[in-house]
Amino acid sequence: MPDPEILAPAGSREALQAAVYCGADAVYVGATAYSARQGAENFDLPALADASRLCRLYGVKLYLAVNTLLTDRELPEFQAFMQQAARFADGCIVQDLGVLKLLREMLPDMPLHASTQMSIHTPAGALQAAALGCCRVVAAREMSEQELAALCRLPIEVEVFVHGALCMSVSGQCAFSALVGGRSANRGACAQACRLPWKTPSGKNPAALSLKDESLLDHVGKLREMGAASLKIEGRMKRPEYVAAAVTALKQALAGEQPDRELLQAVFSRSGFTDGYFTGNKRDMFGFRRKEDVLAGQQVIGGLAGLYREMPKAAVLHFSLSLKPDVPAVLMASDGADYTVTVQGDVPETARKAPLSEEQLARSLQKLGGTVYTCGTVILDNTAGLTLSAAQCNALRREAVSRMDELRIARHTPDRRIRTVAFPAAFRELQPTRRRIHVRTELQLQAVPDGEITCIPLSLAETASGVSEWLEAPRIIGEEDAYRKQLKALRKRGFTELVCHNLADIRIGRELGFGLHGGFGLNVTNSLTAASLREIGLQDVTGSYELRMHTLERLGKALPVGAIVYGRLPMMLFRVCPIRAQDGCRNRNCFLTDRTGRKFPLLCSGTYQELVNAEVLWFADKGYQPDFADYYFTDETPERVQEVLHGGKAPANRTGGLYEKGGLR
User: Which domains does the chain have, with CATH numbers?
Assistant: First the structure.
């Protein structure tokens, strides 16, 4: 079984150097825009060109992370940027389905990787990403060994995070930083509010939403056996010493050696490491950055710089110099395998004392510091007693090395077709649909007036007729085969419509013959994303509630786009319950308290939990005209459901969300 790729983060030029010099097979970098780590140093176009040269000298792949959500007004500028940046990248990591559609048409030869921000965690989701043009899927970090093994059996590459920070929320499904602080995690500006003080009802843990860092070094053998294509280290915000230590440790683990875990933990950790998602042992996953963690890092950082200060050698150059009277000197350099270069120098002179010897020539040619080469054999053809100065020999060496560099770089530089894509105008006139009522309980369902479209969880389907009820897919699929069987049975019972929050829902729902409707979990922020969803079968979609309402209203070019106008907006999506792990399961009245004393309800759906806003979104009376309006009921009584739907009074703890005060434009 071949070793998987070691993929390292590079948030700066020095971190890139650390990754390459320590032996990473690939690196991922962000540009100064469009990257999910805007707090990193990142790379402008000249820096990308420099990074690309270094990587290609060593045969290291460079993946460009353009994994944020974009709006319509940003897409033309993004296209112009990518037309220049594409020549430096060996692949692009993408979250936005509109960006994916654009890059597929604009750069037909570019490998596209489905970002972990797409929240793909099942085979159907990975297969749908492949159908959309992805050659690799970056698996959600919350997956178990069995779930990852199922993905690795598919005809698509699977990339697995094996070391680094864990977000509390499923990536791509966190709106907390945006809704509370106006800094969107889907735009690379997360404020890491989950690392601030939070308490479970018992109040035992002051950092109830902070997870330890992940480390799967003990499991790289299993990942190799199951066929993982790439092992990824998190950390574009981390120091180069961290990158060097993590790459070195991962190389050692793949070689069957024992990495220095204490050193790796000292470099950076939060109360140690966890493998809880992979193994299923989720009780000891929580930790935070302690004073002793910081002090341990300060003690070891200085000693790690030596791992990446010296430029490692990648090839041996064999030299042959020919000196003939009255013609320029000719130096041939060969790496003994792939390339040979020939350069000309000055015309040699007749030696007044001793002619140039092989020993003298070798001293000049062996000066290969600062290059990727070491000196092999040196042959001199100098039968006429000629000489060259040391300076002339050095000039020949520099020219030969420069040309050899260009050949190595050219060898690893793909030939990209780059097209300009015209952005479409409105596709057609579309008729708005009615409002949709989303409920969680049987009593709420009974309170909805007849004739309304009511979206219900699968757990309520047994008591519903399917006439006016639409099934709402779970945001996380626990076991895909069982989920597929359940949907198939409900389809036979007469349910015809499915609200989808994930690519897997779309693929499975389409196969089973459901009418498909997009939920907020699909993160629609531009018209190209809406067009892409229409192409794969959606009839309409709820737009991202990180948008300004005026922007959202303009998205309905390809299919109707609606807005949530009432409800507690989902802030974070968990696959480990912080209350169960730290207090034990309470079953009801679950909430988390932030440092200001506000209580945020935690809703349990069995295999996952949703943290929802302490305030209730109230936007139904603002006069805006999205194509349809979503009402999300969570803990409301039946009486309150009826009151809201009949235009009752606004709640005291209301919020307007981001629709007016600061959403994406």
Answer: 5-166+211-307 (3.20.20.70), 315-411 (no CATH), 436-568+615-655 (3.20.20.70)
